[in-house]
């Protein structure tokens, strides 16, 4: 998959990720942030610029938040922050919960990888 293709055509590349390991105390928020920073640097080395990473640190056993996929909260937050027209966005996801979050948010182009 060539994310830089989308970037070249003016798309923002935004990562939306559930991180229940934070709530389960498998790793800290700081450890997650350090790993994310490293990951963004690795993408940048390949000329792939990630616009923003949104994450949900909650676990469904401990919290009924609106951000954890399959709920669309993080996508709607990105929509507001970047003034996105979600009907023109493309969502790539590897889980059914990713696709469902996109569908609930109104994204039309949903691709399961």
Describe the structure.
The protein is of the alpha/beta class and 113 residues long. It has a single domain (3-112), classed as Rossmann fold (3-Layer(aba) Sandwich). 42% of the residues lie in helices and 16% in strands. It contains five helices and four strands. The protein has helices at 3-8, 20-23, 29-45, 73-82, 96-105, and strands spanning 14-18, 52-56, 90-93, 109-112. A two-stranded parallel ribbon has the order 1-2. Strands 3-4 form a two-stranded parallel ribbon. The mean pLDDT is 94.
Quick rundown:
It is built from five helices and four strands. The chain is an alpha/beta fold and 113 residues long. The chain starts with a helix and ends with a strand.
Structural class: alpha/beta
Elements, N to C (H/E): HEHHEHEHE
Indicate the low-confidence ranges by residue numbers.
Answer: none
Shape: globular
Q: Report how far apart the termini are.
A: 9 Å
The named CATH superfamily: HAD superfamily/HAD-like
Proportion of residues in helical segments: 40-55%
Query: How many strands, which pairing sense, and closed or not: the largest β-sheet?
Result: 2 strands, parallel
Radius of gyration: 14 Å
* Number of H/I helices: 5
Count the domains.
Answer: 1
Average of pLDDT: 94
Determine the strand fraction and express it as a percent band: 15-25%
Number of strands: 4
Strand order of the largest sheet: 1-2
The top level CATH class name: Alpha Beta
CATH architecture: 3-Layer(aba) Sandwich
CATH topology: Rossmann fold
